[in-house]
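Design request, tokens follow.
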């Protein structure tokens, strides 16, 4: 709780996006860790729903956690954006039918086949802006 291993700019990105849209977290991390990080990063009020794969029938790459979060948010999966940095996360979000944004970790880059599932690949979290999200979810 004192030295959070957050991606630089992640808190700012979440806050900016939460000003316009509902935000959910679909994580493979344990519930306790999710709650500690949200509180320590002062994001609790910005994240409307958070779920751990511990709370659904199967972990990522299953779509279960993403589908559960979308349902709790009242969002259609096809108009919901999933932001991921890992291979199984990308597979999970794509399998759930979400619009997938990849922010690859330079330390542990996703497998090429998983990265190919992304609708957009960003160079860093600073590129994850409300304008980008608006362009992805606009009505056809």
């Amino acid at each position: 709780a004192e030295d959070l291993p957050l991606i630089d700019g992640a808190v700012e990105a979440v806050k900016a996006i939460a000003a316009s849209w509902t935000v959910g977290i679909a994580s493979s991390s344990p519930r306790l860790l999710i709650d500690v990080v949200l509180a320590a990063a002062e994001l609790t009020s910005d994240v409307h729903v958070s779920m751990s794969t511990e709370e659904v029938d199967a972990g990522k790459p299953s779509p279960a956690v993403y589908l559960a979060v979308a349902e709790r948010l009242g969002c259609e999966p096809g108009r919901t954006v999933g932001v991921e940095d890992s291979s199984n996360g990308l597979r999970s979000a794509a399998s759930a039918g979400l619009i997938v944004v990849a922010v690859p970790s330079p330390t542990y880059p996703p497998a090429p086949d998983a990265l190919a599932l992304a609708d957009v690949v960003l160079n860093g979290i600073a590129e994850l802006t409300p304008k980008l999200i608006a362009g992805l979810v606009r009505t056809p």
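Comment from the thread starter after seeing the answer: thanks! The two ends are 42 Å apart (CA to CA).
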